Amino acid sequence: MNENLIIIKRLYHDYTKKHFKKILLAIFFSILVAGSTSAIAYLLDPAIEKIFINQDVSLMYIIPVIIMIVFFVKGTSLYLAKIIMIRVSQELKAGVQRDMMKSLISTDTKYIDGIHTGKFISNLTLDVSLLVNLISTALLNVFKDTLSLIGLLGVMFFQNWKLSLIAIIMIPLATIVAKSLGKRINKATKQTMDTSALFTKRLVEIFKNHRIIKSFQAENFERERSSKDINNLKEKAIKMTEIFTRNTPIMETLTGIMIGILIFYSGILIRDGELEVNNFFSFLAAMMLAYQPVRSLAGLNIAINQGVSAAKRVLPVIDRKSEIKDDINLPDLKINKADIEFKDVNFSYDNTEKSALKSVKLFMEGGKMTALIGLSGAGKSTILNLISRFYDCISGDIFIDEQSIYKRNLYSLRKNISLVSQDTTLFDDTIKNNIKYAKLDADDDEIYEAAKNSFAHEFIEKLPNKYNTLIGENGVRLSGGEKQRLSIARAMLKKSPIVLLDEATSSLDAETENKIQIAIKELTKNRTTIVIAHRLSTILNANNIYVIDNGLILENGNHDNLLKISSTYKNFYEKQLKKN
Question: What are phi and psi of 396, to 5 degrees?
């Protein structure tokens, strides 16, 4: 089966079928549009014959009133058909976007990290609009214009079959032109959408990194780069519009040639007495009215190509199956001591030969703090990512209280884990809503308690709107330390038995760090805590420390033991002493 037809059938079954009753109603009004359009052309016959030729006074009032009624029916029906399809198209658009968001929200971290945000924004906006145009606007035009064309052809044949046969030649010619342009439009549309996605990507980066741009005085560079993107997008849009517009002069020329031939041949028929003037004008009106649906149907191929091209970019996002799935049939993770154990775990990003972890064996005792130290890229963050199953190991296994995390449902696993990262992630919402994101049904007392224990309450109370203060995109209106305290408050509110701290105090000044260390003690009390540590204070508090290098576990032990047996750890510790 043709690939385009497969996509169209898929869109019908997934999105259009549920709106079939509304579409049928729109088709009914389209039939009225087609009927009234044909009636307008037909009514010129009796109007010219009875009023102008025969000068029948009795019909001078009736026929104009009928014509006005027919125009009213046509206008009202067209309005109602379009309104119904506008509503259907917006529901279709929302349905496609919901499915995309559902897929993106639940998809693997690996997939999200591997594709630029700008592409997803382009898929959700521009591509979805083109796709919806295919399954709504194009669908309405098929029925409306096809029915109108059939009705008008009926009027034309009724008036004179010889002229009608000549006029019909225009239809296949218009189809050939549209098919030729459709292939070019398909290619131009893909190029335009790709360029638009690139521009969206650039836009996201400019907004996200505007401080970096200013600090490195790169404004002129970004202006020039974005100007090139805009010019490129402009050229692609012009090219696509030019291809679209080529349809107009070709169709106008074909119509002009056809009318010229018909007028010439009509003159012969009128001279020979085979055609009356009133029949000719009715025929001519029908043919002129048929021009619009012919042109619309000729351009339908273009709309189909655009919509199918967009669908080829949107549907793979919707259809993508996550590698890390939450199997609800698996039993819940049952927490006892919250011991965590890695058994011969191997892992590499993108399944490349370069391993991030190599046969890693770890044991993190429940209710205790375990620190991970090592150079950047050693594999520390990878260990945290694997515990939360943001990624899955290639081989080996990870156990929590002797239960494989791969044999327990994902929801129950993550429910028992809190993460505090150095890259604090907050939402453009109020402080209260950012804290309660860990527990959406939390009451105000729980939120205030978490904020007080994380020392966030003291700065929140100084803000004009206190807990209802909007913090901006990713907390842009807060300092680094304030954002970190909100992140810790959020983790405290969750009260999970396992806490992952990814350099959670790296953004803090000495005074704030002292407060946060107290907060972290409260957060991690009697909880299994894995901390990536760069600060000396965190290391000294750990019950067990793993020294990691290039994906390998070199040594482990407490602080005093490692000073004796590990030169790597000793070197790390001495550097920390110098910093302090």
Answer: 90, -170
| Distance (Å) of CA 277 to CA 166, 167, 267, 382 | 18, 18, 9, 86
Q: Which residues contact 14 (CB under 8 A, 6 or more apart)?
A: none
Cβ contacts of 338 within 8 Å, gap of 6 or more: 366, 367, 400, 401, 416, 497, 498, 527, 528
Please name the helix (run of DSSP H) or strand (run of DSSP E) that holds residue 417, with its range, or none.
Answer: strand 417-421
pLDDT computed for residue 138 by the predictor: 72
pLDDT above 80 (res 448):
yes
HEC string of 525-543? CCCEEEEECCCHHHHHHCC
340 has which bridge partners?
364, 400
Region of residue 556 (phi > 0: left; psi between -120 and 50: alpha; otherwise: beta): beta
User: In a 10 Å sphere around its CB, with 0-12 CB exposed, 13-18 middle and 19+ buried, how is residue 346 labelled?
Assistant: middle
Mean pLDDT for 26-51 is 82
H or E, element range at 134:
helix 128-135
- Window from 365-369, 475-479, 564-568 with minimum mean pLDDT: 475-479
Contacts of residue 371, defined as CB under 8 A and 6 or more positions apart, other chains included, come to: 530, 531, 532, 533, 538, 539, 542, 544, 545, 546
DSSP reduced 3-state for 497: coil
Angle at 298 between CA 242 and CA 87, to 5 degrees: 90
Polymer length of the chain = 580
Name residues whose C-beta falls within 8 Å of residue 84's C-beta, 6 or more positions apart in sequence: 22, 23, 25, 26, 29
Query: Which residues face 502 on adjacent strands?
Result: 421, 532
Which letter does DSSP use for residue 351 in this model?
G
Contact (CB, 8 A) for 557 and 568: no
Average pLDDT of the chain?
Answer: 80
Closest to 226 (Cα-Cα) out of 242, 240, 209, 238? 209
- Please give the single-letter amino acid code of residue 342: F
Residue type, 74: K
- Beta-bridge partner residues of 549: 552
For 30, how many CA atoms within 13 A lie in the half-sphere containing its CB?
A: 24
Give the separation between CA 85 and CA 57, rounded to whole angstroms.
Answer: 43
Condensed to tens digits (0 to 9), the pLDDT of residues 52-82 reads: 677 777 777 788 888 889 889 989 998 998 8
Domains and CATH numbers, the chain: 3-319 (1.20.1560.10)
